[in-house]
């Protein structure tokens, strides 16, 4: 039994980022064509596109401001023209900012997290769900975070955005589930990426002590879970928040 996404088209937002690149490669390796979204890093997007095309899959690059509905609709139209209707939407993009206390955090950082977590999710649903409903099939996969359960100091803007995203995804799962569209979230822990490998920072004993598996996960661990949720193997899973963090956080019943 394997993950087979042959004949499907996926969109990954924030596809040029540390986790996004591995998601794109993994989804393509499972047989899907991929729309590679970027905000400003066109060079990385082009390199990734060439890499995917070299494997025999189709790939398109699309630039969009994911906090703007018109930009997302234009992105959808471009993907439709180049690859066809999207079957799998992976909402991975998020605005980066510096973390500090609530008393010191700039108000625009809260707005940025709301726009890039909550409103991106809403706009992607408005743009891509209608075609999925018509097809009576589809996948929405949001990238959340273990931080949404931890609620540590200095995380307030990030946690507020991701918790808002969680609410949107749970309700969306109920609203479009009758059309055989699943809506799930993957919540990475502090994940090893290419940046860590290049800098030799894969290990962090302080963090690892709190992880049940006593190690950090990798970008590939996250991408594997995304590919699984995108596949028919996960056809009866919806409304889920799935931590991929080695047991660092554990949702309770």
UniProtKB/TrEMBL annotation:
Organism: Paenibacillus lignilyticus
Family: Belongs to the short-chain dehydrogenases/reductases (SDR) family.
Record keywords, A-Z: Oxidoreductase
Alphabetical list of SUPFAM superfamilies matching this protein: NAD(P)-binding Rossmann-fold domains (SSF51735)
UniProt keyword Oxidoreductase, yes or no: yes
Signal sequence coordinates: none
Protein name: SDR family oxidoreductase
Organism placement in taxonomy: Bacteria, Bacillati, Bacillota, Bacilli, Bacillales
Keyword Oxidoreductase set for record: yes
PANTHER family: OXIDOREDUCTASE, SHORT-CHAIN DEHYDROGENASE/REDUCTASE FAMILY (AFU_ORTHOLOGUE AFUA_5G02870), SHORT-CHAIN DEHYDROGENASE_REDUCTASE FAMILY PROTEIN
């Amino acid at each position: 039994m394997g993950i087979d996404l042959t004949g499907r088209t996926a969109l990954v937002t924030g596809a040029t980022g540390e986790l996004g690149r591995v998601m794109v490669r993994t989804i393509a390796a499972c047989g899907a064509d991929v729309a590679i979204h970027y905000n400003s890093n066109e060079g990385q997007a082009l390199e990734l596109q060439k890499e995917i095309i070299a494997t025999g899959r189709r790939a398109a690059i699309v630039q969009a401001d994911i906090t703007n509905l018109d930009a997302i609709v234009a992105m959808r139209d471009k993907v439709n023209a180049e690859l066809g209707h999207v079957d799998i939407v992976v909402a991975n993009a998020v605005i980066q900012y510096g973390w500090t206390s609530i008393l010191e955090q700039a108000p625009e950082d809260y707005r940025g997290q709301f726009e890039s977590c909550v409103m991106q999710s809403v706009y992607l649903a408005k743009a891509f769900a209608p075609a999925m409903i018509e097809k009576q099939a589809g996948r929405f996969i949001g990238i959340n975070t273990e931080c949404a359960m931890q609620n540590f100091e200095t995380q307030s803007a990030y946690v507020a955005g991701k918790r808002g995203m969680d609410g949107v995804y749970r309700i969306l799962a109920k609203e479009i589930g009758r059309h055989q569209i699943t809506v799930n979230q993957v919540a990475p822990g502090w994940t090893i990426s290419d940046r860590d490998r290049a800098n030799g920072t894969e290990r962090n004993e302080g963090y690892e002590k709190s992880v049940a598996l006593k190690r950090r996960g990798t970008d590939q661990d996250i991408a594997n879970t995304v590919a699984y949720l995108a596949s028919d193997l996960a056809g009866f899973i919806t409304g889920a928040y799935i931590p991929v963090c080695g047991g660092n956080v554990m949702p309770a019943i």
